């Protein structure tokens, strides 16, 4: 490979660009994970994650990708044959559902159009029908990374309550945590699944389960086979800041730094920044005359935008041009929308000028790939970003 000057633009919706502060924190000698210093770090990150999930309860850290934390959520709370209710919002819901099926659960997977989130009314109706309470868990993906569509987790909670149903509520926040407002306790979520490599600005390799008291109680009776993923030895060792097996020490240095950075910026500012970049991106897409995959404005994702290609144009061909010419990676269409959409990641360590560069690369790429565009979407996005900054606190203030 030959050297390409300047930073690569990693504008896929995860893994995201890792900030220098995090990279520098990781670049330190690995410490003894049974030694006295480790316990201090362990406690710091285990406590520091709680406000990010908005929970007072424990958050478990696995040395694993997000897929591992999906499995942990299921095997700790459910028993063979248990019925779980899931909705086909896109590729990630589909994969989690396949996993549940392989683990021996009975999945009711409600078909979806890959352009909408989970309909709270549908959940309420399904649970009301289930008079015998055979459904043991409702699983939802907060931010469906394959489509750029969110599900309204608080409203789904209300739907479960309205049905008076005792099902557990499991939520995947792998691509929303620390980018889009999320409230584990307030929304009565029993297991929140997350990962390190998206909004948390870390490299891949850590994943999380935030757990409710109800989930802990369920884990004492759950019958699915579990060993590595078992919460019990984790919770016991975590009391003193330690782990039952070797943790990903250097990634935890990075996690400490990322927690500090998020707290310095303030979570509300982090969310507002993601909202602003998402809105600017949508204005760019409309300016180009292209279609946003997400159907309902109240379900727009602030972490990424999936864009539909016009008839006769392939998204992967466009992505190749942009990678070759401008050294920028964009997200591919996954599963049912492969080749039909491309995804612009605007989450994690990101500012207005990173977005301006990203959108400029897309606009130049569209022209080079011969995709007809109506006008300059970049101009629309810049106008919005400029406006959003008038009167707002300057970065230096
Ligand atoms: C990235 C992602 C996953 C998969 O996580 P891995 O770390 O690749 O295992 C699952 N769900 C969602 C919503 C994601 O964005």
Polypeptide structure, described:
- The protein has 397 residues and is of the alpha/beta class.
- It has two domains: 9-16 and 267-396, Aspartate Aminotransferase, domain 1; 20-263, Aspartate Aminotransferase, domain 2, CATH 3.40.640.10.
- 41% of the residues lie in helices and 15% in strands.
- The strands form three sheets. It has a seven-stranded mixed sheet with strand order 2-10-9-8-5-3-4. Strands 1-13-14-12-11 form a five-stranded mixed sheet, with helices on one face.
- Helix 1 runs antiparallel to helix 10 (249-265), helix 2 packs across helix 10 and helix 13 (352-368) packs antiparallel against helix 14 (377-389).
- It is globular, with a radius of gyration of 21 Å.
- It starts with 8 loop residues before the first strand and ends in an 8-residue tail after the last helix.
- Pyridoxal-5'-phosphate (PLP) binds at residues 14, 65-67, 92, 141, 145, 172, 174-175, 195, 204.
- The site of pyridoxal-5'-phosphate has 12 residues, from helix 4.
- The modification N6-(pyridoxal phosphate)lysine is found at residue 198.
- Pfam families: Aminotran_5 (PF00266).
- Its cofactor is pyridoxal 5'-phosphate.
